[in-house]
Amino acid sequence: MKDAFGIPQSLLVLGGTSGIGLATARRLVARRTRTVWLAGRPSPALDRSAQQLLDLGAEVRTVAFDALDPESHEAALGKVFAEGDIDMVLLAFGVLGDQAHDEREPLNAVRVAQTNYTGAVSAGLISARALQAQGHGSLVVLSSVAGERARRANFIYGSSKAGLDAFAQGLGDALHGTGVHVMVVRPGFVRSRMTEGMEEAPLATTPEAVATAIELGLRRRSETVWVPGALRVVMSALRHLPRGVFRRLPV
């Protein structure tokens, strides 16, 4: 169960090598969390991620999980929940893709959509059902400000995150009153392995800053968290710009 400050004792990270996922796990382990499951494709990177948390004193286990194989999700996640209650599930997997290339290669675009949206719908529903069955827990979903309004520069990625965001909000409404808390996290540009080599956008942030915001959101039982918070105002303005004006912006 969570402690009096809302910090989970047990955590499942879907996307076990995610920079934000690991930063969040490290922060929570430093507070209270003692058991961490890392779900991802078996790899040296997943093993290194597990070792990082072991070195911090957590009990860490890994489970094979592939976002692109929804038919395997029931068994993979069932294995985790069969071992005991999970206080928090962090849905942290996703791919950015290469917009210019993916526009010319539709199957690549489909892979982005299947990873970021279809895989998340599958894993999110299975996790939510398990949390509801145990009567408590939080499902934290990493969305993105890119989902607020499709931009020419990354509309494939942005559209997948828009779908994920809408799904997570609806799931939160469906679970209201059940003891399960759903929190949507909308970071802006995050300096991470995924964005390495890209030109930074304004109000860029770090995985550690996102992790801090997630912890605060858990304590407050927030439903939506923007990172940094100023992006809420910025995106509200951009979302309501006339399309002709928005189209001319260098975004």
CATH architecture: 3-Layer(aba) Sandwich
Question: How many structural domains can be distinguished in the coordinates?
Answer: 1
Query: The biggest beta sheet, please?
Result: 7 strands, parallel
Helix content: 40-55%
- The mean pLDDT is 92
CATH topology: Rossmann fold
Count of helical segments? 9
- How many β-strands, per DSSP? 7
Instruction: Name the CATH superfamily assignment.
Output: NAD(P)-binding Rossmann-like Domain
Q: What is the CATH class? A: Alpha Beta
Give the helices and strands as they follow along the chain: EHEHEHEHHEHEHEHH
Shape: globular
Strand order in space, largest sheet = 3-2-1-4-5-6-7
Radius of gyration: 17 Å
Distance between the termini: 43 Å
Strand percentage: 15-25%
Structural class: alpha/beta
Structural account:
With 251 residues, the protein is α/β, with parallel strands linked by helices. It has one domain: NAD(P)-binding Rossmann-like Domain (Rossmann fold). It is built from nine helices and seven strands; from the N terminus they run βαβαβαβααβαβαβαα. It has a seven-stranded parallel beta sheet with strand order 3-2-1-4-5-6-7, with helices on both faces. Strand 5, helix 6 (155-175) and strand 6 (180-187) form a beta-alpha-beta unit. One of its GO terms (molecular function) is oxidoreductase activity.
Short description:
The chain has one domain: NAD(P)-binding Rossmann-like Domain (Rossmann fold, 3-Layer(aba) Sandwich). The chain has 9 helices and 7 strands.
Highlighted features:
single chain; 251 residues; alpha/beta; Rossmann fold; seven-stranded parallel β-sheet; 9 helices; 48% helix
